[in-house]
Structure formats: C-alpha cells, structure tokens
Amino acid sequence: MNNAKGFTVSAPPHIRSEEEVSTGMRDVLIALVPLVAVSIGFFRLYAVVNLAAAVLTAVVCELVMRKIMGGKATIGDCSAIVTGVLLALLLPPVVPAWYVVIGVVIAVAIVKELMGGLGCNLFNPALFGFVSLLMLSRVWQPIVYNLGSINGVTTATPLTYIKAGALNGIRPGYWDLFFGNAGGALGEVSVIAILVGAAYLMYKGQITWHIPLSILGSVVVLSAILGANPLYMILAGGLMLGSFFMATDWVTSPDSKYVQVIYGILIGVCVVLIRLYAAPTGAVAYSILIGNAFVPLLNGLIIRKKFGESKAVA
Amino acid sequence: MELKTFTGGIHPDYRKEATAYKATEEIALPEEVVIQMRQHVGAPNEPTVSAGDRVEAGTTIGSTEAFVSAPVHASVSGEVTEISEQISFSGALVNSVTIKVDPDQPDKWTGKKNLEGITPEQIREIAKESGLVGLGGAAFPTHIKLSPPADKPIDIVIINGCECEPFLTCDHRVMLENTEDLIEGLKLMMKAVGAGKGIIGIEANKMDVVEAVESKTASESGVEVMPLEVKYPQGNEKMLIDALTGRRVPPGKLPSEVGVLVQNSGTAVALYKAASTGRPVIDRIITVSGSGIREPKNVRVRIGTRIEHVIEQCGGFVNNPEKVIMGGPMTGFAQKSLSAPTVKGTSGIVVLTGKETGESEERECVGCGKCVDACPMFLMPNSIVKYIKRNQYEKADKYGVKDCFECGCCSYVCPARIHHVGYVRIAKAELAAKK
Ligand code: SF4
Ligand code: SF4
C-alpha cells in the first residue's frame, strides 16, 4: 500500500491559506476599477491610451528583465500591472504616451527588477517612476509641457490653488473633488472612487487603516496649525490615492502596526511642509518616497514587544 | 455569549465535520506492536524485558531512574519478539520493544475504586505509574507538571479542550464520550496541586461538549466551563491562559509563573481512568482524516500500532495522497513511510492531497506584514527569517527566535509561501550549538 514515489516530507505547517502574492495584487487591481472607470469616463481616450501604454510597457519590461536577469517568470503575480496602472493614474491625461512609457520603464525595469524583483525594492516603483518623470520634465521643458504646469484637458490642477492660498471662487469645490470633476492627474479625479476601492482592500485584509489614517490625520492637524485649509489639503491632489494605494504598498511600508503609524505621520508631515513651503506638484510622491527611505531605519529602531514581555519587566 | 480569546492567530479551514459527529470506533488489533522507549519529553526508558518474554497488557516494559520521564507499558498481551531501534514519527531511530499480539486480549481493569480520601502524593504516584504524559501532543510527563515548585503556588488548573488544530476531533469525542471522567480528572489535578479553581476551556465549535460539561458541573463549586472563540493556536498553553484568565506568561517562563497549570482534556480523562481502575496508558483515541483517507473517523488505537495498520483499518487511501502527517496539519510531522508506530502523544493521522497542502515554491518576502499580525507571540517572523537567511543568528535571537513555539501561523498566512518554521528550527539548532 506504500506509495511508490514516497510521500512528501517538509517542515510544518502542512496547509496554507489560499492567499498568494497574485491574490493581493489582483485585489489591488479590483480596488482600482472604480477610479480607473471614473478617469476614463472623464478623460476618455486620453485615459485609455495612457493606461494601455503603461500596462503594456510594464508587462513587456518585466518579461524582458526577468529573461535578462535569469530569474523565474513572475508576471503571473500581476505586480507589474499594478505598477503600470498606478503610474498612469499619477500622470495628467495629456502627457504623451511615450512619456508614460519612459516612466514605466524606469519604474519596472530599474526600480523593481534591477533591485532583484518584487520584495527587494526599497522604493515604490510607480512613485519613483513618477518623480523621475517630474525631474526629467524640467530638462525637457522646451519640448514637453512641464508636468507641474500642465492644464489637463480641464482646468488648472487644484493643487496650484493651495500654494496660492486662494480662497476665491474659481478653484474646484469640495464636491467636485469628491465625486469627480477636479482635473489634475488621472487618479485625482474622484476621491469617492478611491475610498470605495480602499474600503474593498480593507475588507479583503490587504491593507489596514494604520498607514492611511495616520497620514491623513497628521495632514489635517498640521495644516490646521499652519493655517491651511485641512479639508482641501486632504481632498485635493494625489493625497488620497497616495495614502490608500501607495503608502500602503506591501514591500515598501513597515510591517508592524506601531511602526506603520510613525511612518504615516512622517509622510503626513512631509506632505504639508512640501506643499506649503516648496512645490505642491509631486509633494505626496516625494513624501512617500522619503517615508520609504526611512523604513529600514524605523524597522531596526523599534522591535515589537513580545507576548508577556511588558508584564515581565514590571 | 461572549467568547474569550487571545490576540493574533489565524482562522484556517477546520474541516472537522468529517469526523466530529461520529462515535469513536474500535479497530482490529494489529499482528504486532512496536513500543518505543521514548514517547515523552525527557530521558528515554530502558527496556525491562527481553526477547522471548511473555507480557500482559499493562506490564511495565520500560522505565528509568531519571526524574523527567514516564514509564511505558505493554499495550497488548503477547510475546516480546525483538528489542531494536525503530523509526519514530519524527524520523529518529528509537529503541523499541516489539510484541507479537495474542489473539485473546482480556480486559482486567473493570472494578472502580473509591477515590474519596486520595492524597496529592497518591495522585502524582498514579500519574507516574500509569505512564501518563500530555496527550495533546507535547507529551510532557504529567506527574512532573503535577509537582509545581513550592515557591510558585498554583491557584487555577485549566483543562485544554480547544483542539484548535484543523481536522482533529479526538479530544472532542473523548470529552463528549467521557464527560464525567473529564470533570473527575480535573478535580484530581486540582487536588494534586492544591488549586481552588478549575476551568475547562472549549472552543465554540464544540458547543455539544460545553453543554454536556455545564449540565454536569452545575452543582460543582470551583469547576467551570468557558467557551472560546474558534481560533488557532488557542490550544497553546500561553494563549489559552491569556484567553481564559488574562494572565500572560513571560517569555521563557512556564505557566506556573502565573499560578496556572494547563493539562490536555484527554490527559484528565486518562488520569481519572488510571486512578479509578488502575489502567495505565495503553491506548488512545486518534483522529484519522484528510481527503486522502477513504473512511475518516476517530479510532481507539493501542500504543505502538503502526500507521499503516491504522490507515488500513480506515479503508486505506483515496485520491492519490501527497502527505501523511502524524499529528495535526499545523504542527505535525510529515512521514516518509508508514512504518512509524503510534505513541502516547499521537493525536491524529492526517492524509492530505497535493491540492490541500497548498505547497508552492517559496519566493521573496513581499513585506505584506500578514505574518506579523498573525504571530501570537508578537514576533516579527519576516525579520527573523531575513536574518536567518543571512546567517545572522544573533540578530534572529534578538528578534525573539527562541520564543517562537513553531505554531506555523506565519507560514500559513504568508503569500510568498515562506517556510518560517523550517528556518526557525535551523536557527534554534545553530544557537544551541554555539552555546
Ligand atoms: S514566528 Fe513562531 S510563534 Fe510566531 S507565528 Fe511564526 S511559528 Fe508561530
Ligand atoms: S507574510 Fe510572508 S510575505 Fe508577508 S511579510 Fe511575512 S514573510 Fe513577508
């Protein structure tokens, strides 16, 4: 009755949850559906072209890099697609597709794959790609529009109003920001679409409230202290998208809840300071990347208290 | 009703329906049994019989002078044919006595003794003489647990009726089919350590047992049953004590540190049986389950019966099994062959198909933090593995690798399919070797 091939022997546990890396990435993609839908509804062909260019480039980049680097094919985990979609959402609709392509190449090929693939990267690939484009755009300014001053297909981005401290009637209203009429980047069109997606991710257990709420909370508090409009601060620009979909990135965020809150506050503070005292464009992206850079340090500084430890030293 | 529990842990698919509601069955005796001289935590026994000897069921056939030990008994009447090293469930070779089983097996433990005036010393003696060990799998000699250090008085005895491992239902059946013995066993333990309070903790997927115990303890003072949320690893001593009493055992310490003694439910039943009838540990209930088994059920098995015989008695394999596990699927031992004999601590034989194991290649940690949230010891399993992979064992030590009790929650939830427990074992061995 003995099985001819013998039975498999390995360390326990002998059962695993059904969650794999691809499950998590697929959940992120599902959570992005409302936002993608609103942005396509709003920007039409501009959005479709950029999203398609980004996803296609991301997939090709990952396949090619895996071949070159000699690693296992990991395209099935969908993480490259997530990066592509997020980067497209970070950019305004009128940037040309080749521009998107460059950003994705930087994000997937360099930031992720060259570092050894998903899990080895220090920085969020989509954000790094976006910031690289921001910087490059200054070099290319004569040829391409400066991203910071691009006037979407609609109006000026809401963020420019924050810097100007404008409280007159021409800025987009709160309701426009919330439901989708705000202008700016693809992913900035509708806060509610982002919240719906975020609620799904929390329901699925892929993210928790710790990072987004500590970012948003610290932004509200600090902007109130510094005299900026807190509500406008959190609704405008990429803050919502960044807080729920990018600062929460598995790889580049801390893993214990306590450290996550510190990381969130660090990002929130950076966002307010950069927006008010430096350039509003890209403030969220820069802030999250700064947060990313601090993760190894924060992880090393704070070791979780073991079960029963607090009472032991009492 | 509010259900008590601990922080962290996981909710695996329990799959207990296959066996939970079937009464325990007897199986045919095997032709021979292999009694291993080491079935407990502590010093191995020396055989006290030789080849050719006739033994009766219950005869002591292995013992030692060492303090941390428990004697072993012949589980059947028959003839000793061989004393040799035999493979154990963990894969190690263990000195063993093989007995050819007589066709006739008279049961001589029928009369019931009156235990009214029994003393704590006598209870410990009975636990020792009957070879009782923790029957939940840990297999720590019971008489030692019943002798707590004088400076650490015990005020609560907890009976562990969680059975939080998926598939396993043997404790469920034992508690349901021997409810009175369970309560009497608990009272003996309370007497042995001088505790005024006894709690039977049972997970809420066994409400039939909760009700049965409740109806029988209504008039008892000091004994109480508490239902618990269904969550793994609630049956770990530290988690269970926290869930039921709110006391947290400090790292590296024993439950006596917080005045608690925890015993498995099967152990309580066996203690009462030993005290009232003189019957030593010669058999136990084992859950045989998993998609690879034709007739999943709970069976009474003589200690020393080879896995192969038990599986045959449950209809054999179906569905092309991939893994045969001795114990539960979260912490049990995967078997290469089917020749290892059952021991006192064997709670289950679980046969899994390839699909059920969810096994796939380990990839790089993606930093999702799920293992961190799941770890009931509040460790950082991902950081621990990171340092072990770099051979930085001191770093892993700093992150608490020695406090890991290998529950496997981290590996269970890990989307990167990392074998944390495997790495932890390597690190523990390395750290022990360096000392
Ligand atoms: S690190 Fe150890 S104690 Fe923590 S979940 Fe993993 S196996 Fe369990
Ligand atoms: S669960 Fe696995 S992938 Fe997630 S942080 Fe832990 S080790 Fe890394």
Q: How would you characterize the overall build of this protein?
A:
The complex is a heterodimer of chains A (314) and B (435). Chain A has 314 residues and is mainly α. Helices cover 61% and strands 0% of the residues of chain A. Chain A has a single domain (21-145, 160-299), classed as Orthogonal Bundle (Ammonium transporter fold), CATH 1.10.3430. The termini of chain A are far apart. Residues 142-156 and 163-170 of chain A have low confidence and may be disordered. Chain B is of the alpha/beta class and 435 residues long. Among the domains of chain B are: 120-277, NADH-ubiquinone oxidoreductase 51kDa subunit (Rossmann fold), CATH 3.40.50; 370-434, no CATH class. A six-stranded mixed sheet of chain B has the order 1-14-13-17-15-16, with helices on both faces. In chain B, strands 2-8-7-4 form a four-stranded antiparallel sheet, with no helix packed on it. A four-stranded parallel sheet of chain B has the order 11-10-9-12, sandwiched between helices. In chain B, strand 5 (60-63) and strand 6 (72-73) form a beta hairpin. The termini of chain B are far apart. The relative contact order of chain B is 0.15. The model of chain B has no long low-confidence stretch (mean pLDDT 93). The chains are: A mainly alpha (314), B alpha/beta (435). At the A-B interface, helix 1 and helix 14 of A face helix 9, strand 15, strand 16, helix 11 and helix 14 of B. Bound molecules: iron/sulfur cluster (2 copies). One iron/sulfur cluster is lined by residues 365-371, 381-382, 413-416, 418 of chain B.
Taken from the alpha-carbon principal axes, the silhouette of chain B is globular
| Nearest-integer average pLDDT of chain B | 93
> What is the end-to-end distance of chain A?
58 Å
Question: What fraction, in percent, of the residue positions of chain A are helical?
Answer: 55-70%
Structural category of chain B: alpha/beta
User: What is the name of the CATH superfamily of the domain at 120-277 in chain B?
Assistant: NADH-ubiquinone oxidoreductase 51kDa subunit
Largest interface: A-B, 49 and 74 residues
Largest sheet of chain B: 6 strands, mixed
Which residues of chain A sit in consecutive blocks of at least 5 with pLDDT less than 50?
142-156, 163-170
CATH class of chain A: Mainly Alpha
Could you name the CATH class of the domain at 120-277 in chain B? Answer: Alpha Beta
Low-confidence stretches of chain B: none
